[in-house]
Amino acid sequence: MKSHNQTRRVLVHGAAGRMGQCVREALKRRDDLRIGALVETPDHPQIGSNLEEGAVLTSDVDRATNECDVAVSFALPEGSLHLLRACAHRGIASIVGTTGFQTGQHAEIESLAENIPIVLAANFSISVNIMLHLVRTAAGLLGEDYDAEILELHHREKIDAPSGTALSLGKAVAEGRKQIFEDHSVMTREGAVGTRLPNSIGLQALRGGDVAGEHNVMFLGVGERLEIVHRASTREHFARGALHAASWIRGREPGLYNMEQVLGLTSQ
Ligand code: NAD
Predict the structure, then answer these.
(1) Sheet holding 213-220, edge to edge
(2) CA 154–ligand 1 middle distance (angstroms)
(3) How far, in Å, is the centroid of ligand 1 from the Cα of 98?
(4) pLDDT at 162 exceeding the cut of 90
């Protein structure tokens, strides 16, 4: 059943996780959005408890989608896909921040987006999306004389590597150079690997502490280096960006959208 007033009910998926908590907090500062349902994996110890006033943590995705207007998911790839299947069935627009989808899972998201609008972004930060723009432009202007290397640093609990944002930055370099990212990315170097592969795009992941996220894209020339760096000190801006997308998606046609489109940085 759709909400009758202007306030849209948000299904927060992965609600007890680090990002889920940020989304719940950010929702308290919105007039146009409110908590509709809080969903976690069935074996989560807080299932059945009142995580927020009037909102019990559930693992019942079908029921939760029935009570909401838009879903926001920061969870694990298989869990987010399970949610998206239910959302596609009920016509619920979805915002997905989960990273680490495999190629086949990404293809399924594209196919589900034929039924509902989905915003999928490895990074909902506004400045990171501007960084993607800058990186694409710099890569195109500098060309292949400048070696592209991407370094990312995240907290010790992060389970996928390189980060989804680092992969997006790598793809932005490839787009700027008119290359195919998968043909040029180099993610491991160990042993006698030889000299740097021409035109390659290197990505390296560092893990430790509680670092919310750092990304450094280097363009290394002879005698000079251009670096474009983003450092996140909290996770709040990711949640704010995701809720901006949850507002934006209202009334959109089915399709797979990215954050650059949400922010009007690229054509729809
Ligand atoms: P986290 O481990 O703190 O939280 C994930 C939550 O999802 C956990 O509470 C877990 O129990 C829950 N979960 C797992 N499977 C589930 C399922 N099937 N159904 C419902 N809930 C389920 O992790 P986190 O730091 O909050 O990050 C979550 C994801 O979001 C990761 O993939 C991370 O890389 C990504 N992330 C994206 C952005 C962005 O801007 N797009 C920003 C930060 C993190």
Answers:
(1) 185-186, 201-207, 147-154, 213-220, 225-232
(2) 14
(3) 6
(4) yes
Could you tell me if 10 and 33 are in contact, meaning their C-beta atoms sit under 8 angstroms apart? yes
Answer whether 213 contacts ligand 1 (Cβ < 6 A): no
Cα separation, 127 vs 138, in Å, equals 16
Whether pTM > 0.85 for this model: the answer is yes
Residues 6+ apart with CB under 8 A from 38: 11, 12, 15, 16, 20, 24, 51, 52, 55, 56, 57, 58
8 A C-beta contact, residue 118 and residue 93 = yes
Amino acid at 25: E
18 lines ligand 1 (CB under 6 A): yes
CA of residue 42 to ligand 1 center, whole Å? 15
Ligand 1 pocket check for 13: Cβ under 6 Å = yes
Active site residues: 154, 158
Q: Encode pLDDT of 38-50 as tens digits.
A: 999 999 999 999 9
> Token pair of 198, please?
């021409």
Rounded to whole angstroms, the Cα distance separating 128 from 150 reads 14
Name 231's bridge partners. 214
